[in-house]
């Protein structure tokens, strides 16, 4: 299983709802076996940084993750979120 985690930060806090709605489009993508979109509830105590959203997905394998990224819902989400975000940090790892 591949776990895919992405952190997002809004450039302007007035866009939080639009970003959330854009990320939520990913929930209809059929290639994830599990997908969550969450709002971060606190700032990092060491750096003071705030990540606004976390996307957490689970995929059967690398091929499923690749298919997820080519599905139209992925591009639809990018089209909405990319112009409004300041930070995007992603990590993928194989679960043991």
From TrEMBL:
InterPro entries: Dabb, Dimeric_a/b-barrel. It comes from the Bacteria. Residues 2-93 form the Stress-response A/B barrel domain. This is Stress responsive protein.
